[in-house]
User: What shape does this take?
Amino acid sequence: MNYETVIGLEVHVQLQTRSKMFCGCPADYQTAPPNSRVCPVCLGLPGSLPVVNRRAVEYTIMTGLALGCRIPGYSKFDRKNYPYPDLMKGYQISQFDLPLAEDGSLQIEVDGVSKPVGVMRVHLEEDAAKLLHFPEEPGDPHSLVDVNRAGSPLMEIVSEPDMRSPDEARAYLTTLHSIIQYLGVSAGNMQDGNFRCDANVSIRPVGSEEFGTRTEIKNMNSFRSVYQALNHEVERQRRVLEDGGSITQETRGWVEERGVTVSQRSKEHAHDYRYFPEPDLPPLAIDPVWVEEIREKLPELAGQRKWRFIEQYGLPPYDADLLTGSRSMADYFEETVALRSEAAPPLDGYAKNVSNWILGDLSRLMNLEGVAIGDVRVLPKHLSELLELVDSGTLSGTMAKTVLEEAFATGQAPGKIVEEKGYSQISDSSVVDEAVVQALAENPKAVADYLGGKETASKYLVGQVMKITRGQAKPDLALELVVTALEAARGGG
Assistant: This one.
């Protein structure tokens, strides 16, 4: 039987506010000593009262608007009751039936095909504390609680079950992550836990209108993990059904090392969280004027910026898509292009050249070192200076790559590196001629190939000249002198 996959995603985004959701404690818990960012409110002490963080509400409305959501004029917070060691009060302040944003949509693209994925709701809640387990401590297995994270503002974005493959789920996540990044409402680092995803997945016979029994997958800390976990779970459910079994509604965890999902707890019966309106917080009346003010502050998002890059800079769609996938990389590109001198090539050619360097050699170095573009030592002014050195003929393309590597490692300006290392391009024909004589003498087979009619052998010999001169010979001069020497040899000169 052929099966259709049905996927819905719940994404938790930790908002980048200065203070926590309902108290004045600093929200920089990740770099703070354990239990040092706490107060009576986030400790859940009797008599403490929460106060809503206005900026967190604003960020949630901003995200809802970016996702095309409707912003109701009325919203409220609710108590979600459940006992767990990392929940200090025995309940979580969340939103149940009246979220801050609902009925939105996110456009995704897979293999050139675009489709909308519904966004059911965007609501606001507080994060829980963090449990640290030490099960293998000799003679003393135990767990510790770090309350620093408790009360941090957490935005939950719930999709409709509109995705039909792990590829679509990955596209949804990367597109949503890009929007969050462009809005500036969160750092969005999955490895740090401030962009977390739970996936609900089921399969059903193709053509069926009824949903199959779903499982929820947790513990995924990268886009790659989500993709692999969904692929594994879809295949697992298919095998269970084909073997005559039935799918159990449960929560499963993704085990990265083994590449499998494992059962964590049954969800045969829905939890009764006993939601009721939070008595210590008044309902929120959302002023439509305020909503419009937030809408006017929305930045240019990745999709809009992509098409502007194509139109304004003449970039191919492929380049524009890669550059605008990250706000930091798009900013880096535009800052570099803005530094273009009057003597530089026309804008479209120059912009394409900048794109090639960023997506090529600079990205290669970033991947090798595992750093993001916001942390590289090669600033936009350095890349602009490097391109000017190439355009002016001071550096060859080969030498420019060497200079870029040194600038990447040291943070030095390309001009200073060229000056200190003597990397300027050699245009003195007498100096290059000496290298040509040496290259021909050391490579008699390539010379014989050329004389035998294989003219491409000249390119190999030019490469040898560049090697002898450490990449400093002017390439067109080297080619001219190599061909001249070979033709002289052909004529017996």
The first strand starts at residue 3 and ends at 14. Residues 76 and 97 are 8 Å apart (CA to CA). The chain has a mean pLDDT of 91.
